[in-house]
Amino acid sequence: MKKALTIAGFDPSGGAGIQADLKVFHALGIYGLSVASSLTAQNTEGVRDIMSVPDRFVKKQLTALLSDLIPEATKTGMLYSEANVAAVAHIIEKYSLKNIVVDPVMVSSSGKKLVEKNTLVVMKKKLFPFSTVITPNIYEAAVLSGINIKNMADMEKAAVCLRDSGPENVIITGGHLEDFALDVLYDGSFHYLKSRKVIGEYHGTGCAFSAALTAMLAKGYSVLRSAKEAKRFMNRAFKKSFSAGRGMKLFKF
């Protein structure tokens, strides 16, 4: 069985972070491995607090795991501190990990900041160059590129800018556009993945998409095919979403 690794935050609600990633891996027939980079106190209404796992312990988790199990693909999610970004980049290089998906998580769906002040600078410098693909949403892409994104043309400009920082591929997910959900994939050429915009608030959408993408890469698919399959997976997930608490809807994978 193919294996995929997620390095991300712990979400007690199970709707995002490590828990969501492992559910997606399982649903797609991939054996999931996981390393916790942070702990959160959150529910479907939002994130209340965050505790970053010390970088030395993130390294210990990864070193112990990778001395025994090497994944076919690896995803990073919430990396709260600069030190953790640097630690993860070091391990990716040391073990020559392949099919690296970076979801540059910045802000929770409820608006809570999920990174320290200079984490994104370190991420662009140390982690993006090892990335097979990065998957920022429109807000994240705007912050990382410095481009105010209002339409598809702006998404294209931001994608080109971000690819220049090192990743082989850039996928800007466009669920935050007003009229429809358009994902723009740039690998030197542009590819467009369009779907109907789903109304409502959903917990862990970005985590689920990037995890599905990681699972498909672990199966040996190309980035473009993986993105298309991940998009289809999410369309099915939206149809099976449900309300479990007082806040955002959850996915049943």
Give the key terms.
8 helices, 253 residues, 9 strands, nine-stranded mixed beta sheet, 21% strand, single chain, alpha/beta, UDP-N-acetylmuramoyl-L-alanine:D-glutamate ligase, 38% helix
Walk across the major sheet and give the strand order: 3-2-1-4-5-6-7-8-9
CATH superfamily: Ribokinase
Q: Can you name the CATH architecture? A: 3-Layer(aba) Sandwich
Which H/E pattern describes the elements?
Answer: EHEEHEHEHEHHEEEHH
Oligomeric status of the shown chains?
single chain
The beta-strand count equals 9
Main beta sheet strand tally, sense and closure: 9 strands, mixed
Residue share in helix: 25-40%
* CA-CA gap between termini: 19 Å
Shape: globular
The domain count comes to: 1
| Strand percentage | 15-25%
CATH topology: UDP-N-acetylmuramoyl-L-alanine:D-glutamate ligase
Low-confidence stretches: none
The CATH class designation is: Alpha Beta
